[in-house]
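HOLO CASE FILE
Compound: adenosine monophosphate
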Amino acid sequence: MNDLLPGEIEVWQFVESTARTLFGRFGYGEVRTPMVEDTALFVRSVGEETDIVGKEMYTFEDKGGRSLSLRPEGTAPAARAYIEHSVSNQEPVSRWFYMGPMFRYERMKTGRYRQFSQIGAEAYGAKEPAQDAELMDVVVQFLEALGLKDVTLNINSLGDDNCRPAYHAKLVEYLNAHREELCADCQQRLERNPLRVLDCKNEKCQAVAAAGPNVLEFLCAPCRAHFTDLQRKLGVLGIRYVVNHRLVRGLDYYTRTVFEFIASHPALGTASTVGGGGRYDKMMKGLGGPDVPAVGYAMGLDRLVLLLKEGGKTFTQRPDLFIAVADEGSQDEGLALASRLRREGLKVDFDTRGGSLKSQMKRADKSGARFTLVLGEQERTSGQAKLKPMAGGEPVPVALDNVAATVRAQPEAPAPVPAA
Ligand code: AMP
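Model generated. Tokens follow.
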């Protein structure tokens, strides 16, 4: 679990605000649910045999003896809220997004934490492939807006209750025949959740999986039509994708479409999946709600941030102006001037400790401010001062009652290099 301090948080805020903008354009409204839910919600939706529920949840008993869990993901809580508030009675289609912390007791690695943040979205009420495609489009446009390239969309279809059992049976038969070649974990998975063998990272298991039955060959006609139409729609949207028949994802609730966005960047090591999701048409009903189809996805913010940091862009907004005071008598006016300019919309830095002009100028350098204005007795009496460009260049004369407009009128110079 990590602390995020000023200096680091700005990149997070950039990702979050970009997400809000994109979701707004696509008509997704924000939903906020509690961090804790009844443990049973996750057992019933995510699935008892998954790693998340079986091994990774922070589960505890509250004072009333109820079993609660810190949420390990956002889809089940959103579905719970959707059912609890009878949203399907109010509108046929709902589009929601969420962002916030999730908790999983995972082994620590780069890009894998026990408290991590996800940005996710869910679209309820539309079973059509166009909805799957639209959801992928939000993610594609979001990644574009962040400036992240080298992320590949992988898609697959897991079929439905009609066609998946035949595939499942064939897979189990095949894996049993290759049992000895699988890692110890996969030998257990084979008993409890054979699909999970397909996304084991062990090379030998991957080789076994690659030569195994292909889920797409088992799809029934409606599932095949859905998958074909989805690909056509992605083509219409100009979204590039790869069909990956081994993509299964680690949660039990998916039907038909599943997808993942995979980044090829060394910074992420093996944690290269930045986000993924799929269709879960049966979950609402399974949780005792209405028979409403849904498709959703979640992206890991922590991993997006790692990628952006690698890009070397800075996200901290530097001050427009640093106000330094030349003498103690100007301290109050400096404080008041800073306050007034902030009200007028400038980002202003001011050393509340006062001190020597030299030490304030050092601080001004370090702040990365565009300009410094020194306020002394002379400036106060004449009402005239100078804006010193910190990147070098001629000082700009300025009337003290016209500072904000003058700063705004100056052409943007490259950021000064802050002193070490
Ligand atoms: P999932 O809910 O497992 O499908 O995960 C969706 C996305 O959340 C992943 O692609 C990751 O980007 C992110 N994620 C999942 N687990 C973690 C974790 N323990 N630490 C950081 N990010 C995670």
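CASE NOTES: Residues 73, 104, 106, 111-113, 116, 118, 250, 273-276, 298-300, 302-303 surround adenosine monophosphate (CB under 6 Å). The chain has 16 helices and 16 strands.
CLOSED: yes
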